């Protein structure tokens, strides 16, 4: 009897292990549609609309042995190696910081483009150089962290990203550099001894970080965005349309349930994103009627390297045909394509 109980306990522990132990793989599957008006508010903006604009998400989870095996049997679940999700140079914290930075840039670009399309001015301010990740063994290892903003180098205020590059060009390995940076809204100062940048063939002194510009934008009317639970840049197009829809008196939706995806670039171009097939499936499941898909151009060089690579729009159309949806897939290369389509759309 005791032997049977022991075997039963071992069996339960094995099941628990296979169900809970996380392996170095991720599973991507359809997420959900979320009305953008729930996240974006223009002060005194027009929200009296018949239809809706929705951003799309994919569901991403780290696999366990059980979910890994299950995903292999599912048509609309994709297994991804951890390096397909996360840059090999970054840890989990740096990955999360980068996703939040991409979302922050997405909001910035959405406000900028929407206000320019509405004929309104914006005030852009450079805040500093945002640290994305710190290279192991580099000058900043153990000193700077992902999310820090470098504001001064040797007492000189950094006015743009190019200025940081120029200041460091004059430096040599073993030179000392005084860095002022902001962490958790508090300014700090450290002195670094410059080392060779890890992973580079040329022996060049540097901070040993990857970085991006940090800018803020002020608008009138004010735009508030609540996006704590969303990462990445793919909501940029729909953020832009929602801001514009609230700025303008007319209803861009014309009474339709409109979804879409795509990174919004500062010049108004709509950039390619990942997982568009799963977003099409989720949009259909959530009752969307129109879906904006980036019509990105695949360069001849990329086509040679990845013969099966196709535009987001092409993938979206194939997926729509595969699931038999009546949802209209609309290609967009830039914000004007989306606006022109909506302007010509007959009210529902």
Note the run of SSEs as H and E. Answer: HEEEHEHHEEEHEEEEEEHEEEHEHHEH
Multimer state: single chain
Number of strands: 18
Backbone structural class: alpha+beta
Measured by DSSP, the beta-strand proportion falls in 25-35%
Terminal CA distance reads 70 Å
Task: Give the name of the CATH architecture of the largest domain.
Answer: 2-Layer Sandwich
- Determine the fraction of residues in helical runs and give it as a percent range: 25-40%
Describe the structure.
This protein is α+β, with helices and mostly antiparallel strands and 348 residues long. It folds into 2 domains: 2-121 and 220-344, Ribosomal Protein S5, domain 2, CATH 3.30.230; 124-216, Pdz3 Domain (Roll), CATH 2.30.42.10. Helices cover 33% and strands 29% of the residues. It is built from 10 helices and 18 strands. It has helices at 2-20, 65-71, 82-85, 92-117, 161-169, 236-247, 276-285, 300-305, 312-323, 335-344, and strands at residues 25-35, 40-42, 52-62, 78-81, 122-134, 149-153, 156-157, 176-183, 186-193, 195-196, 205-206, 209-219, 223-225, 257-260, 263-264, 270-271, 290-294, 328-332. The strands form 5 sheets. The chain has a 6-stranded mixed sheet, with helices on both faces. β10 and β11 (205-206) form a beta hairpin. α4 runs parallel beside α6 (236-247) and α7 (276-285) crosses α9. The longest helix is centred in the N-terminal third of the chain and has 26 residues, at 92-117. The radius of gyration is 24 Å and the shape is globular. It starts with a helix and ends with a helix. The relative contact order is 0.16. The model has no long low-confidence stretch (mean pLDDT 92).
